[in-house]
Amino acid sequence: MKRIKYFYKLLFSYVFILLVAFILLSVLFLSLAENLAYKTKVEELTSYGTKIISELEKQEMDVRAVKLKHFSSILHARDTKFFIFNEKGEIIQPSFRLKQKPLLSEAEWKKIQHGETLQIKRDVKRFEQPVSVVVLPYMKDSELRGGVMLTAPIHSTLQIVTELNRYLLITACITFLIVLVVSIFFSRSLVKRVQRLRQATAMISKGQYDVQVPIGQYDEIGLLGDDFNNMAMQLHKAQKEINRLEKRKRQFIADVSHELKTPLTTINGLVEGMKNDLIPEEKKQRCFEMMEQETKRLIRLVNETLDYEKILSNEITLQKEEIEVKEVFEVISEQLELQAEEKGNTIGIDVPASLFVYADYDRLLQILLNITKNSLQFTENGTIMLRGKEERQMTIIEIEDTGIGMDREEVSAIWSRFYKADTSRTNSYGEFGLGLSIVKELVKLHNGTIKVKSEQDKGTTFIICFPR
Asked: Which residues form the HAMP domain (predicted)?
């Protein structure tokens, strides 16, 4: 089946509707004009007939004859004729050549007998040419005594109608040309907008989601274009998110593989050495300790990775309660006391005894231990201060160290998973770069905020705010 283009459909519909409207209006106008012309002629004849009837009612025959003769000459000049008939319908004066006899039909004669005026706008049967006819009865004592019939040819009216038809034909041709030009313009405009949508859709199907369609007018097509742009924007965002997740997945696999490689290589080397008796007996105990350490390191990596993924997947449920901050600080100080002494560091506590925080105890301890461990790793012969205070319905915890500090780039990057602040050292933020990522997500779960203030060679301060 052959397809008709949308452009031609629109063009045909525009032209058809406008032409039909013009034709209907033209027919209505011609009908009104013709009726008005005939009505004017009939009213004129009725006016003449009324004056003639008034003369017939006069008794003086001489005066009546003179008046009728005067009317005859006036009406003749206006191409109008009249004749008088008696109560039987017979013409009294003057004589006319009739194409039809009797003068009036039975139905028409009954109307005359009842005193009704008969008006015929167009008659082609009774006379030699088409005329307008008016018949007025002459009544006396409620009885018909005769009447008068007036006729006027309608060729002038027909000429007017013909002239109107000619002008309307010219107007119709001009209108058709205008309608055709306007219809082509609007059809092309609409088709162009639809084609833009089609081209954009084709780009979307090819995976180009950053396309935007010009809206223009806010009609139905404009609203469709707006919806299309919103759809394309959402698809573009979704594609970016998919790419980001894919990149994150690849990065995660690469990072985990890298972190697993070192302890696995160490364990494998030690096992191969012991298997082939390459390690002296006195060093085997040290080998077992190293394998134990690397195994624990692998376990911590797996646990931290699983912990982080659980947080991102909202699989962790917090058991919040009122916790005394000073008590938590003392637990941290006791657990990390040996690590601090190894590097010549001291852990100080500055917190009011009545300060409480509304949080999950285990997760709060995990947050503060991770941060404090990082501070210990990057501080030598210094101080790590654990502070607590309350401001504006917020419990604020600060962990300040006098370590090596960080520059601005490092401060903005430490929250990224597997990021290591100093790759030249064995120590790193969270050993595997996961610690601070977990800290940030756990703080978010508590509806809190965390920020860092740091300056190179002057130390770092972590500020955590928990809502009361």
From this structure: 188-240
Q: State the amino acid at position 286 in one-letter form.
A: R
Task: Check whether the bond before 280 is cis (ω within 30° of 0).
Answer: no
Quote the CA–CA distance of 194 and 278 in Å, as a whole number. Answer: 79
Q: What are phi and psi of 319, to 5 degrees?
A: -110, 85
* Cβ neighbours, 10 Å, residue 405: 19
Q: Domains of the chain, with CATH numbers?
A: 6-159 (3.30.450.20), 232-310 (1.10.287.130), 317-467 (3.30.565.10)
DSSP 8-state secondary structure symbol assigned to residue 5: P
At a CB cut-off of 8 Å and minimum separation 6, what does 231 contact? none
Q: What percent of the residues of the chain are helix, what percent strand, and what percent coil, each to the nearest 5?
A: 60, 20, 25
Average pLDDT over residues 64-84: 74
CA separation for the pair 399, 379 (Å, rounded):
13
Q: How far apart are CA 443 and CA 447, in angstroms?
A: 7
Return d(Cα 396, Cα 357) in angstroms, integer. 9
What are the angstrom distances between the C-alpha of 124 and each of 20, 42, 47, 151, 152? 32, 15, 22, 11, 12
pLDDT at 96: 53
Q: Which residues contact 215 (CB under 8 A, 6 or more apart)?
A: 222, 225, 226, 229
Residues 6+ apart with CB under 8 A from 150: 45, 48, 49, 52, 75, 80, 81, 82, 133, 134, 135, 136
> Strand 459-467 relative to strand 449-455: parallel, antiparallel, unpaired?
antiparallel
> Which DSSP category does 348 fall into?
E
Asked whether the whole model's pTM tops 0.70, one would answer no
> What percentage of residues in the chain have a pLDDT greater than 70?
84
Distance CA 132, CA 41 (A): 7
Distance CA 199, CA 223 (A): 17
